Fold this protein.
Amino acid sequence: MDKIRTAVIVATADKYVSTAITLVTTAIVARLINPAEFGVTVLGAAVLLMANTLRDVGSSAYIIQAKELTLAKLRAAFTLNLFLTLAILPCMVLSAPALARLLNSPGLDLYLKICAVPFAVGAIVYPLHALLARDFAFGKLAVINIASTVFNSAVLIGTAIAGASYLSFAYAQVVSALVGTLLLLYFRPSFEIFRPSFSAWKDVLSFSLFSGGTGIVQRATEVLSVMAVGNFMPPAMVGLLNRASMIAQFPERTVMAGVSAAALPAFSEAAREKSDLRKYYLAAVERISGLIWPCLGLIIVLAAPLIRLFLGNDWLETIPLVQIIAGGLLLNFPPGLNYPILIAQGAVRRAFLLAILQACIVLPTIVISAQYGIHAVAWATWPIVAINVVLSTWFVQAYVIRFTWLDIGRALSRSAVATAATVAGPLAIVHYSGGSANVGLAEGLLAVGVAGVSWIASLYLLKHPLHMEFARILRAIARRITGILRPRGRRV
């Protein structure tokens, strides 16, 4: 349990640091690249996301969850990843002009061709990254991720200032991918796995067909959703919706990125040791909701000053979009744990079926809503999230863990009260200021400070598990500092 707790803390801290760097970078770049130019990168990112998912096809998940991981199995997973990379890479490059015409985005052609470099490098990155995650080496992964983010941000800002426009994002990906690969090879020089082998291909492929299929369906859903919006709206609208989603999803993506990174290895180890998954699951739901919900509430209340601060006045149209999307995400609590549990338990076919059912909900909803404008797409978040939560939780209940919705309600109750206490003060400040649009920097900082104090106080008064986690972390830091400062006796 301590190993899992440490892994989650390190992974989450990694994502917090990386996200903080990304936010600062976004605030700078948003003033250098307009929404229409940014829309090209959104479409390009969607295509690359799909390509990366097709290439990985569950081989990383296989390495992490395998009960007995032999060298033969590692080589088979690497071989599968390599062959798919060699197959997809020329298809992506050759189809770039057609995709640019299809999506009415001429700049997409060159963008995808430049991004072929980091895609090719991924053949090495994915297996090594999975090995470190399996070994709970999240400290090393944090160094790699933060270093890659720093180089990405430096190149992105520098090239944007130089006038590279949307191609700045492509150049930044190339540099960060190369930096990340070099660090991976340094921390995990497992060169023995880079010899193609098919000796254990059946074992790898039987898992990857469904696990990879799940990832493919999920990514295809995301990509097709972006393309559907791009088909009915100009690139500028796509850019606005993307930035609004980024701000609204910031708490969830930051917390869940850290939790998800550790979730599959943690649940896989718990499954191998036959531990009580029900206890782990409900504890995770309570802790995650206690982090995410107050942040979402604060984003809804302070959307206007946040947008002005991080994106600038060119992006003010995103304010209502941020509030709508963040409101819908309050219904999420969180299904981000559900897929790792299903895969860790070997229920890959159930996870695949779940992904298909969710795609059947998401895609028609996005296609229909996109025809009615950007605000309709934002409102579509509400039914999509609500249905997906119910569906994914039912799958976990039915096939992995026995718990009731009352158990979920109990796990969420203290987080709901803490959220209400957190946003009460900022709401009063906004009301006193005459509305969110009139909140200046000073009032915004005051609101954030009041929210922070209220949140911590509510965690303490409610005896929320997060309070105990924070206390444990602070005690560990204090012991470390005391150990450093304590004078050491002289050697005789």
Summary: The CA atoms of residues 40 and 359 lie 24 Å apart.
